[in-house]
Design brief:
The chain is α/β, with parallel strands linked by helices. Helices cover 32% and strands 30% of the residues. The protein has two domains: 246 residues, 3-Layer(aba) Sandwich (Rossmann fold); 205 residues, Rossmann fold, CATH 3.40.50.880. β25 and β26 form a beta hairpin.
Length: 478
């Protein structure tokens, strides 16, 4: 089990690396996180919804992502509430207090039965913790850290982010606040994101090993990579590239990993005020609460600013909830329960919210004339059902099975789609950006080819060189 001294210590990525390292050594490996809070979710093989972190860890294990790998998912909705997803399916909205006092115990018991099944069927389960395992106000209710470790009798690797500073103090503080029983489960420490000469850390390592009898398993250097990280500490970039690509930072923004390729190729600028909106491209992203975010844009003048920018020549894009907002009308008696709401009207599309969520992997063919015929793929996670006179694409495959249904909508210098991850189709992104670059008299660019598989393999290789994998396997009896 990988636990951290804080949020953002790098647990998700180190767990991913261990998944790939053990898989490459020939073991049957799966990931597990009992409870995750995330705005970035992804579809599972069962058609359910799991956090993006466990989705990526499953790929690192060369397994199809399953709801078993993340039984409990909390998706913040605002108003101090979160949508509660269990085994991939929404089961209601809860406040933090309600969840902590009335739902956690039962869900933890069910999640541990799922974990037991994984432990029986696989050689290694790589478990990820959440936040810090010793938050005093939360520890009695914590179902993602030491309670899981004790249930599974897991060996715990404690990770500290040394780039942030205070890493030795954070490890000592964590160890001191663990019970004696919990400390026994800790097998060693990893210092993550280090820049410099690791030999200079030796006095601190000696101190930790003397005080706790635990081994420092290694120092992982700071590394640039393109693997999506956990979203709780994400800093939204504000980069004005040669094309000014602006993304509206909605209060309930979701699945913003969609825009990483645009950031790599050009730079993106997240905006949240009407006076900021003046880009060449304006994107309205996915939302956990579509109607409330539409009304927020309306009340704050952002809607009018987008429409004015569009009249001045800006290209406007909507992804999932953003697509719904750009249409003419949303009828929502499910999520916000506000009934019929007027959209921005840039797309001739209407959306009706249904009581069930569609969660699927998709392959599609573009119908939009500048890129007509191009094959793309992505995924959908949505309650809305939309119709349009001018669809953006036709879905040819759903979860590997042949299909034929229309997606999205085309407008004048605007399009919308339900395809999350469309910009990860780098051929699509390159042609789209170069179309706009030509309009501005800019030279065409080549969007560097990106392979998630290569990124996972490269990062795992770095970690394998940096830590004592043999010591970990020996502790597992392997």
């Amino acid at each position: 089990m990988v636990q951290g001294t804080s949020s953002g210590a790098g647990k998700s990525l180190l767990a991913l690396a261990l998944c790939r390292i053990f898989t490459n050594l020939g073991y049957d490996v799966v990931p597990f996180k009992s409870q995750n809070m995330s705005l970035n979710s992804a579809p599972s093989v069962e058609g359910g919804e799991i956090s993006r972190a466990q989705y990526l860890q499953a790929l690192a294990c060369k397994k199809k992502p399953s709801v078993k790998f993340n039984p409990i998912l909390l998706k913040p909705e605002g108003n101090m509430k979160s949508q509660l997803v269990f085994m991939g399916r929404p089961i209601g909205s809860v406040s933090a207090r309600e969840y902590m006092l009335s739902r956690k115990k039962d869900l933890f018991s069910k999640a541990m039965k799922v974990l037991d099944g994984l432990l029986e069927r696989h050689d290694i389960v790589v478990i990820e913790g959440a936040g810090s395992p010793v938050e005093i106000n939360l520890k009695d209710y914590d179902i993602a850290n030491m309670r899981v470790a004790k249930h599974a009798n897991a060996q715990v690797i404690l990770v500290a982010d040394i780039d942030r500073g205070g890493s030795f103090a954070s490890i000592v503080g964590t160890m001191e606040l663990l019970s004696e029983e919990e400390r026994k489960l800790v097998t060693g420490f990893i210092f993550n994101k280090f820049r410099g000469d690791a030999s200079l850390l030796k006095p601190g390592f000696d101190y930790l090993e003397r005080r706790y009898g635990k081994k420092v398993l290694g120092v992982v250097p700071y590394a640039e990579h393109r693997i999506p990280e956990e979203d709780s500490l994400t800093e939204f970039p504000k980069v004005k590239g040669e094309l000014h690509i602006q993304i509206v930072k909605l209060p309930h923004i979701s699945n913003f990993t969609d825009f990483e390729p645009l950031h790599w190729a050009n730079g993106v600028d997240y905006v949240s005020r009407a006076e900021e909106i003046k880009g060449d491209v304006i994107i309205v992203p996915g939302s956990k609460n579509t109607v409330e975010d539409l009304l927020w844009m309306r009340e704050n003048g952002i809607e009018d600013a987008i429409l004015e920018a569009h009249r001045d020549g800006a290209f406007v894009i909507g992804i999932c909830g953003g697509f719904q907002m750009l249409g003419e009308e949303i009828i929502d008696r499910v999520e916000s329960k506000r009934g019929k709401i007027r959209g921005l009207g840039l797309l001739k599309a209407r959306t009706l919210f249904a009581g069930t969520k569609r969660t699927n992997h998709l392959k599609a063919q573009i119908l939009w004339k500048p890129l007509e015929g191009m094959a793309v793929e992505g995924y959908e996670i949505r309650m809305g059902r939309s119709t349009s006179e001018r669809p953006f694409s036709v879905i040819r495959e759903i979860n590997g099975k042949p299909a034929f249904e229309y997606d999205g909508a085309i407008g004048e210098r605007a399009f919308g789609t339900y395809l999350h991850g469309i910009f990860h189709n780098l051929g699509f992104t390159e042609r789209f950006l170069n179309m706009l670059r030509r309009e501005k008299g800019l030279e065409p660019l080549s969007v560097s080819r990106w392979s998630l598989e290569e990124e996972i393999e490269g990062f795992a290789g770095l970690v394998e060189k940096s830590i004592d994998v043999g010591y970990i396997l020996e502790g597992l009896g392997l």
